[in-house]
Amino acid sequence: MMSLQACQVVLLLVCVTATVHGAIHEIKQNGNRYKIEKVTDSSLKQALASLRQSAWNVKELDLSGNPLSQISAADLAPFTKLELLNLSSNVLYETLDLESLSTLRTLDLNNNYVQELLVGPSIETLHAANNNISRVSCSQGQGKKKIYLANNKITTLRDLDEGCRSRVQYLDLKLNEIDTVNFAELAGSSDTLEHLNLQYNFIYDVKGQVVFAKLKTLDLSSNKLAFMGPEFQSAAGVTWISLRNNKLVLIEKALRFSQNLEHFDLRGNGFHCGTLRDFFSKNQRVQTVAKQTVKKLTGQNDEECTVPTLGHYGPYCCEDLPAPFADRLIALKRKEHALLSGQGSETERLECERENQARQREIDALKEQYRTVIDQVTLRKQAKITLEQKKKALDEQVSNGRRAHAELDGTLKQAVEQIELPHATEEQSPLQLLRAIVKRYEEMYVEQQSAQNNAIRDWDMYQHKETQLAEDNARLKKLNGEADLALASANATLQELVVREQNLATQLG
Fold first, then answer.
1. Residues in domain LRIM1/APL1C-like dimerization (predicted)?
2. Alpha-carbon torsion, ordered 496, 498, 501, 502, to 10 deg
3. What angle do CA 160, 141, 77 make, to 5 degrees?
4. What is the SS3 assignment for 309?
5. Concatenated DSSP letters for 203-240?
6. Over the range 216-227, which residues count as b (16 or more CB within 10 Å of their CB) and which as e?
7. Residue 21's pLDDT is what?
8. 113, 274, 286, 317: which sits with the fewest CB atoms below 10 Å from its CB?
9. Rounded to two decimals, what is the model's pTM?
10. In DSSP terms, which residues pair with 242 in a beta bridge?
11. Which tens digit of pLDDT belongs to each residue from 245-301?
């Protein structure tokens, strides 16, 4: 006989199979939880319509692991008590607007291709790892939020609008494309934020100060930071902090951390020994925690230095640098130039490959973590839709390329007419025309340069003559002045002689 418990499970689990336009979908129910399997874009509306009678009872709707490339809030409007929506492991593209779902608390969007996401005011937990998201909009709500956006295309905290950055409790932006962080942009979460994960981005600068009253963990490992500055006072109350595998050279010695600090990991950097000495002299408890952290993670008292010549201060590798920032900057720029020009050393090339491989391993692990078991039929449908979307994107690129080609062709022909290009024909390809135009402009440039040089030479000659005339004029003025003085002297002498002559005539008479 079947047990009472087994009977209850059978009663709770109801499978409904429907045939719609040749496609079969299955609906499984467990209380107010519903899962729809084997549903496609063409059968989604019918599948949801089959739940209309019990729409008032649906609190959780699971559409994961299907080949859905589109879904709208209007499709889900009848489910007025919907709190959890699972759309993971589909092939959703471009913009997903669920802002009007005012009761939705949890959304699982992992493993899709969404680029822009809009959610409503009641959202509390958002899982959207492994997408192409570059923008998220959250309607203003009063509740706390947990947002998981690992492995997307976020480039700045501002890619999350103000609603998404307010009242956040857990924010995971691991494996995105962020290069600068301004803590002030999370001011709306100053009294709620507990966990901030920015691991494996490209962050080289941290700005702004906010007192995060409840922040417990801060992960900025595997970035490009060179200075742990005063902005990190925003995380003074953390119990767990990691800036492992950055480019850290200096630490602000005035930084202070909570007595509750339990994990402090700064391995894999390039410290100046003096900065560690100054920092740890003011933070002896932090030094103790750092040693305990290294011991726990590696089993050794000190981190292992990749360069044998490096020394240690505290548990971390360091070296004495006469000009810390300048020395490191010059070294990094030299390495960057060498790698880009293909002239980097084997050691530098291997280091670059290790960094890229480490990032790729994290991406692969994240995809595996959120992987959903999908049957082969659905996998093939998903692959087909993915290829169709790629084909569509490529078609758009081709179309844009053709438009650009046509515009270029028209521009080139206008240029040919304007510069009166000789020997130009309709049969010439745009590339041939472009080369001829470039050649003609180079000739015109040479001609203009020659004319300009001649004009400059003429101007210099004019300036020289003008200078000579000015000098001659000054000399003539001087001579005229001397002549005027001589004439005045002669007149005076003549006058004197006239007077003497008159006096002599008087005496003789």
1. 323-508
2. -110
3. 95
4. coil
5. --EEE-----TT--EEE--SS---EE-GGGGGGTT-SE
6. bbbbbbbbebbb
7. 41
8. 274
9. 0.73
10. 219, 265
11. 999 999 999 999 999 999 999 999 989 999 999 999 999 999 999 999 999 999 999
Q: Give dist(CA 449, CA 440) in Å, integer.
A: 14
| Beta carbons within 8 Å of 257's beta carbon, 6+ residues apart | 235, 236, 237, 238, 241, 264, 283, 285, 286
What does the chain come to in residues? Answer: 509
Q: Which amino acid is present at 375?
A: D
Note whether 214 and 194 are within 8 A (CB).
yes
- 8 Å CB contact between 437 and 421: yes
Per-residue pLDDT band at 3 (split at 50, 70, 90): very low
Asked whether 141 and 123 are in contact (CB, 8 A), the reply is yes
Rounded to whole angstroms, the Cα distance separating 410 from 404 reads 10
Lowest mean pLDDT among 42-46, 55-59, 216-220, 339-343: 339-343
What was the pLDDT predicted at 448?
Answer: 83
Tens of pLDDT, residue by residue over 294-330, are 999 999 999 998 777 678 898 999 998 887 766 665 5
Pairing of strands 33-37, 23-30: antiparallel
Cα–Cα distance measured from residue 19 to residue 28, given in angstroms and rounded to the nearest whole number:
15
User: Quick check: 109 and 128 in contact, CB under 8 A?
Assistant: yes
Q: Are 68 and 96 in contact (CB under 8 A)?
A: no
Residue appearing with tokens 């180079």: 442
DSSP string covering 429-461: -HHHHHHHHHHHHHHHHHHHHHHHHHHHHHHHH
Specify the residue for token string 């971390």. 316
Amino acid identity for residue 120 in this structure: G
Task: Let me know: does 43 contact 71? Beta carbons within 8 Å.
Answer: no
Question: Are 316 and 269 in contact, with CB atoms under 8 Å apart?
Answer: yes
Query: How many other CB atoms are there within 10 angstroms of residue 272's CB atom?
Result: 23
